[in-house]
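We store chain and fold; example below:
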Amino acid sequence: MLVLTRKLKESIMIGDEIELTILAIDGEQIKLGINAPKNIEIHRKEIYLAIQTENNEALKTEVNVLKNLSAFIQDYK
């Protein structure tokens, strides 16, 4: 992990297209501004993990549906 120190209004670049700017500091919280291309999704980590969990559950459901459909077709023949 890279650890950098930044002051209010200072930025960090990630690659050529993503800029993180410190917008405000309030006690133990900071406000980050993120400037990135629209094709890059940006989520808080807990939201990102929830999305991944939901996607995995949906994938399992699709596999089960396909198995049931395959069994139904085999029985129909």
